[in-house]
From TrEMBL:
InterPro entries: HATPase_C_sf, HATPase_dom, His_kinase_dom, HisK_dim/P_dom, HisK_dim/P_sf, TCS_sensor_his_kinase
PROSITE patterns: HIS_KIN
Domain of life: Bacteria
The protein's Enzyme Commission number: 2.7.13.3
UniProt catalytic activity: ATP + protein L-histidine = ADP + protein N-phospho-L-histidine
Gene3D superfamilies the UniProt entry points to: 1.10.287.130, Histidine kinase-like ATPase, C-terminal domain
Cellular component per GO, a single term: plasma membrane
The protein's name: histidine kinase
C-alpha cells in the first residue's frame, strides 16, 4: 500500500508537469500562428488595430524581439481579471514598425490540466482498490491451507499414534513442504517410539540382573565363611550395586520428564506432599525436620513428580546438613524454602542444578537429585534457585507461574 501510494503521487506529479508543458507549448504555438496572421492582415490593411484584449497592433519606432510572458488583463466580457499568455514583438511592414501583441487565456488549459490529472488519479485509485481486494481475497485463498497446516503442526504430538495429516495445496512449494513435513514427522514418531521402548526395556532389564547380583552377594556373605577383608569388599560391592540401581532409576526418570511422559495435571497440595515426605524421611534419618507453613500452595501437576520434587529437596538438605542441625522447610508467598546448615558456600553455585554436578565426597550421592528438581520445575514452569546466607544453604522453588 505504501509503495502504491508513493507511485500514485510521483506519477500524478509527473503527469501534471508533462501535461502542463504540453498545454503551454500548444498555447505558444497558437500565439505564434495568430501573430503571423496579424502580420499578413497588416500588410493588406495598415490601419488594423486588432481585437482588444486578444489582439492589438500599434505603430512604434522601437524594434523589439518576440517576448512570451504571463499577464493579468481585465476582460470586459467576463467582467473580471483573467490570466493570459502573451506574445509580443515588432514587425516591419511596408517600412513601418508595428508592435503586435497576441494573447490566449490560460484558465481553460488549467481546467483541462486539472481534469486530466483528477481523472487519472481517480482511475488509478479505483484500480488500486480493486486490485488490493482482489489480491487480498486471492491470497487468503492461496494461504488458507498453509495456516490450516500451521495450526495442525502446533497441535501435533509425538505421543500420539496418529500421523500428521496436512491439507494439500495447489501451490507447488506448499505441496512439497507438506510432503516433507509428513515424512519428517512420521520418522520422528518412529524414532520417539523406539527410544521410549528402549528406555522402558533398559529400565526393566537392568533392574533384574542388579537385584540378582545383590541377592547372590547376600548369599555369599550369609552362607560362606569369609574373612573381614572379603566381607568389606562384598559390602562395598553391594553399596555400588545399590547406587547403580538408584542411578538407573533417576536417569530413567529424567528421560521420562524430557520426553513429556507425565501428562497428569491433577491439583496437588504442596503442603501435604511436604508433610508426607518429612514424615517418611524422619522415620529413616535421626534428624529434626521442621515445617513452617504461612500459606497453602496448590498447583496442577503430576502427583508422582510432586513427591519426587519434595523428596529430592528434603533428602538433599538432610544429606548435606552439618553439625546435625535441624532442617527447616518454609512455605510462604507461593514458594518453598528448604534450609540446612553449612560451613561454607558452594564453589560453583550457578551449576548446582546441573546433571552429575556435586561437591560432596559422599559415595551415595549421584549428582542427579537437584538436576531432577530443575527438570521438574522447567517442565511445569516453576523457578528453582539457590543461595547461601548466614551459614545456611537455602534452596527455593517458586511455584507461582
Amino acid at each position: 500500500m505504501i509503495t502504491s501510494i508513493i507511485i500514485m503521487i510521483l506519477s500524478g506529479a509527473a503527469l501534471y508537469i508533462y501535461t502542463k508543458w504540453l498545454l503551454q507549448n500548444e498555447i505558444e504555438e497558437e500565439l505564434y500562428s495568430e501573430k503571423n496572421r496579424v502580420e499578413h492582415l497588416l500588410e493588406q490593411n495598415p490601419e488594423l488595430v486588432g481585437i482588444p484584449p486578444i489582439i492589438t497592433a500599434e505603430k512604434t519606432e522601437i524594434a523589439q524581439p518576440n517576448i512570451l510572458v504571463d499577464t493579468l488583463i481585465y476582460d470586459p466580457l467576463q467582467d473580471e481579471i483573467e490570466l493570459f499568455r502573451q506574445l509580443s514583438g515588432t514587425k516591419n511592414i511596408n517600412g513601418q514598425n508595428y508592435m503586435i501583441t497576441v494573447r490566449a487565456m490560460t484558465i481553460e488549459s488549467e481546467n483541462i490540466l486539472f481534469a486530466i490529472l483528477f481523472t487519472f488519479l481517480v482511475v488509478i485509485l479505483l484500480a488500486f482498490i480493486f486490485l488490493f481486494y482482489l489480491n487480498k481475497s486471492r491470497n487468503e485463498k492461496l494461504w488458507k491451507p498453509f495456516f490450516v497446516n500451521l495450526d495442525r503442526l502446533k497441535s501435533f504430538s509425538l505421543r500420539s499414534n496418529q500421523p500428521l495429516s496436512l491439507e494439500d495445496s495447489e501451490i507447488l512449494e506448499f505441496h512439497e513442504l507438506n510432503r516433507e513435513m509428513e515424512d519428517l514427522t512420521a520418522k520422528i514418531q518412529i524414532d520417539y517410539r523406539n527410544l521410549k521402548q528402549f528406555t522402558e526395556d533398559i529400565s526393566h532389564e537392568m533392574q533384574t540382573p542388579l537385584a540378582i547380583m545383590q541377592a547372590k552377594i547376600e548369599t555369599i556373605i550369609n552362607d560362606i565363611d569369609i574373612n573381614e577383608a572379603q566381607f568389606n569388599e562384598f559390602s562395598s560391592l553391594q553399596t555400588d550395586i545399590g547406587r547403580l540401581k538408584k542411578l538407573n532409576k533417576k536417569l530413567i526418570l529424567l528421560a521420562k520428564i524430557e520426553n513429556n511422559q507425565f501428562t497428569g495435571t491433577e491439583t496437588t497440595s504442596i503442603n501435604t506432599t511436604f508433610k508426607e515426605t518429612i514424615q517418611n524421611i524422619q522415620e529413616l534419618a535421626a534428624i529434626n525436620i521442621k515445617l513452617k507453613e504461612e500459606n497453602t500452595i496448590e498447583v496442577p501437576m503430576d502427583g508422582s513428580l510432586a513427591r519426587v520434587l519434595c523428596n529430592n529437596l528434603v533428602s538433599n538438605a538432610v544429606k548435606h546438613n552439618s553439625n546435625n542441625q535441624p532442617v527447616l522447610v518454609v512455605i510462604k508467598d507461593g514458594s518453598v524454602l528448604v534450609i540446612n546448615s553449612g560451613t561454607e558456600v558452594l564453589e560453583r553455585p550457578d551449576q548446582v542444578f546441573e546433571r552429575f554436578y556435586k561437591e560432596s565426597k559422599k559415595r551415595d550421592s549421584t549428582g542427579l537429585g537437584l538436576s531432577i528438581v530443575k527438570k521438574i520445575c522447567d517442565y511445569y514452569g516453576f523457578t528453582p534457585s539457590y543461595r547461601f546466607e548466614n551459614n545456611k544453604h537455602i534452596f527455593q522453588v517458586h511455584f507461582v507461574v
